[in-house]
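YM 10:42: Ribitol-5-phosphate transferase sequence, as discussed on the call
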Amino acid sequence: MCVWRRRYQRCFIFLLIASTLSLIFQIWFIHSNPQFQGSAFQGMVNKWLNPGNKHAQETLKLFVKHTSQADLPLFLMDPAVLSAVRNSSHGAADDRRGTQHCRYLCSSQGVITLGLLGDSHIKLKPDLLQSLHADGFQYVITEGHDPRLASVASMAAGKVPHHMLFRRQDSVIHIVVLYERPGKFLWHAAVEPENTQKWTSLVGDRELQFGQYEGAYDKMEIIPTKLDGVKLNIPKDPAAFLQQIPQSRFLECDYEQARKFQTSYGSDQTVEDVEFVGKARSLLSQGKAVLDRIGVRFWMSSGTCLGWFRQCGIIPHSKDMDFGIWIKDYRDTLIPAFQAAGLSLKHRFGKVEDSFELSFQSGDVKLDIFFFYEEDDIMWNGGTQARTGKKFKYIFPRFTLCWTEFLDMKVRVPCQTLKYVQANYGTNWYEPVKQWDWKNSPPNVQPNGQWPEEEWPEVIQLFDVR
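YM 10:58: structure's back
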């Protein structure tokens, strides 16, 4: 390859570059492959790639010392650190290693995130803040409305802590306050726009993992452990918590809009309306329980979605409930699961590969399930007229799913709700309409052919549910 005596300088440079590239490749390979995450060598790599994280470890230990004395129910919710815990073959506990090792906490991405299980009385005591300040911590605490007190009937929205930032030298700790909602899940607020400047002064160019939008999470069991010599609480099942983060976005119902709707159109309901709303709520709870149990995602669609978006409630004259489900999430156990829960199959239209639709009956209230298909830059669900076999296609702009709380239940709605509702009901969606023809009234409906008569026994199935 080369002659050392003649070209020793070139050989030296060549070998130096080759060795360096080999070392960089090995570090990159270990750093980017899950099977190595949480290992002792990964800890060294993290410290080499993130030299400031060692100081973050020391700062967190000092911070936890102060907060533990104040009995604050803090737990670790930092995605990078919990990922290292999850992937570690040695488990979460790290009691044998001291602060000289940084196997987990050095995985953080510049900000270590903690959760605080809050209630309406959570407030940091002045002596705790003073002691933290004396140890070099700067802080910002933001407050905002308490959604647990808000409703269509009430303007009450007491102030509660939402987020807290603590900075000591170059280390930042972000505390996300989580509140249990009536729907038995945990909720956190978004960072309000007016607080952004205050936060920027402490965060700098670091990226916060939580606060871009409101979030919703299942309640979780918290257990004590020790990571890199620091005593912390963590979710008992880190993997389950991490899995929720990408789909955690939460949308609050617009109570102010609902009050305006109520003022404009009234809220008086007949005895029949009140009875229907009670039955519909029960059916929503039943349907949610079935689909949650078999692991099928669903969202409130059509009139049910409109009722939530427009008036934060059920439309009394709708007389049915509507769910949407991705066709890719359909499974053969769905129909038997509903029947086992006491819901009768009323009709089955279409095929799984085209315009599939199910309807179940509970008493005199119907649950329609529309299956959605993805096609280029649109999403659509189908409809079938039982008498003629005509097919219809309802077209929506592409959308993603968010959580909301509806009738004290945690359920999904399209994140792009306005566009979704406008597609289905037009720009006059705000005005109540009692006469609605599913084949002609929706602005997004279009003819989609007709089922061949020989296929009708398969694609048009009606059942006696008396």
